[in-house]
Amino acid sequence: MPSSFHVESADGYERLMGRWSRKLAPMLIDFAGLADGDRVLDVGCGTGSLAFTLAQTPGLREIAAIDYSPVFVEAAKRANTDPRISFQQADACSLPFEDGRFDRAISLLMLHFVPEAGKAVAEMARVVRPGGVVAAAVWDHYGGMSNMRMLWDTAVMLDEDALPLRRRYCFQPMMRPGEMKETFIAQGLSDVEETSLLVRMDYLSFDDYWQPIAAGEGPLGRYVAGLEPDKKKAVDAAIRAAYEAGEPDGPRSFASVAWACRGRVA
């Protein structure tokens, strides 16, 4: 099942999102729980933020990680030095593992890019043993990502073509309150709990914020890269003004909230 995430380069993704994924990963791991001897599956590993954070727990037996993007998988393989971790290219909706192999399956910032997210949850549950845990987190694009809403809300004032893209961005799968919980329950998971996790995204300057997007990375970057030169120049200037908010360019900090959900395999 193809992902809707647009990948230009692993380095670009690191600047756009990887650095924030690493801040969110420990919070999701705490929420999912770990035990000595666990075998853990990272579904949608990207460049390895969750897998490498999991590896900081010495008692884990195995960390298997998959992603749909070969660009991400190759970058993660190059960065890996832990023999417990394995990376491979695979589809979250058709995981290449036998039933019940893992103690936990965890997905960090991936489910909202899967058109059939329920099928991915079902696959995560299939490969986890009875009594094991499935957990996931996605950004709350509508109400919890002020740094990206600033971009979209500015763009639609200048470009009506951005209106349907903003709607799609704000309401990707699993982003409405209770949606992940309902999906987990529908896939047969028990003791399902949904919560929210908050991190701060701290930028050094407007260029630190804008460069990976302007370079075409991710869904937002794909929109910006596709603009005609005059419109792109106007959007660039308007978003700079929104970032600076009347003050000189420099550091800015944005609160960013993710929905998180966990459930137990029957």
Write the layout of secondary structure elements.
Layout: H1 10-32, E1 39-43, H2 49-54, E2 62-67, H3 70-79, E3 85-89, E4 102-108, H4 117-126, E5 128-139, H5 146-158, H6 162-170, H7 179-186, E6 190-203, H8 206-214, H9 218-225, H10 229-244, E7 252-264
Parallel strand pairs: 1-2, 1-4, 2-3, 4-5
Antiparallel strand pairs: 5-7, 6-7
Helix pairs in contact: 1-8, 5-6, 5-10
Describe the structure.
The protein has 266 residues and is of the alpha/beta class. The protein has one domain: Rossmann fold (3-Layer(aba) Sandwich). 42% of the residues lie in helices and 23% in strands. The protein has ten helices and seven strands. Strands 3-2-1-4-5-7-6 form a seven-stranded mixed beta sheet. α5 packs across α10. The longest helix has 23 residues. The radius of gyration is 19 Å and the shape is globular. The two termini are 26 Å apart. The model has no long low-confidence stretch (mean pLDDT 94).
Task: Describe the structure concisely for a colleague.
This protein is α/β, with parallel strands linked by helices and 266 residues long. It has 10 helices and 7 strands.
List its salient traits.
alpha/beta, seven-stranded mixed β-sheet, 7 strands
